[in-house]
Amino acid sequence: HLIKLIHLCLSCYSTTNHTINSVASCTELEVLEYSSYNRTHASLQLLKIFTSKMLNKVTSFGIGNIIENDAELDIIADAFPILESLSIYIANSNVTDFSKFTRLEDLDFKLHTGIVTDAMINTITGHLPKLKGLDFDSAESVGPEGFKCIANNCKDLEDLRVDGYYAINQEAVNMLIKNCQKLEMLVLKTDSVLMHTTEEKKLLEYF
Questions:
Q1: Which of the 8 DSSP states describes residue 194?
Q2: Rounded CA gap, 20 and 47, in Å?
Q3: Minimal CA–CA distance to 104: which of 88, 127, 123?
Q4: Per-block average pLDDT, block size 10, for the chain (207 residues)?
Q5: pTM
């Protein structure tokens, strides 16, 4: 009796027809948090089974399993065609093709290995012009060019949160201010030190 459920956290090692039918019965489901503890059980294939039987209204999705490649991103995009919010763990900086997420407004991504680069930020944000919220860590190789890409690609951005040994300069600051005029929340962290450079402090003056 889950017909009116709108938020579901689903963790499983395997699945049964009963589980599939129970999830499918959640016809009003809008928020799904999902993880499969058995990677060999093809967790994303399970996801396809669940969503193929749902009247899919899900707009927010979070997954605890590591997304290994762009093909797995496509599975998620195909499963949730009206997705607006996504929280995801990415295997490495080669997983960047978010082109199918045409309605996405909020992206929170974490890297399993490696670091986020300017090129990765450019590719991801280039696919997601409607982004209003962007949150990522492992930003050790994100420099001024990465922030310029965000400013150029995400002009509706309202909330930006970056964690790691990034670098930002005055030119990038000016571009964020000029292009992202809806920006209301800015969190830049390096080892728990917030707004630690002159450029970042200048950016604070505009909020």
A1: E
A2: 10
A3: 127
A4: 61 61 71 65 61 73 88 88 94 94 96 93 97 93 93 96 81 87 84 48 52
A5: 0.83
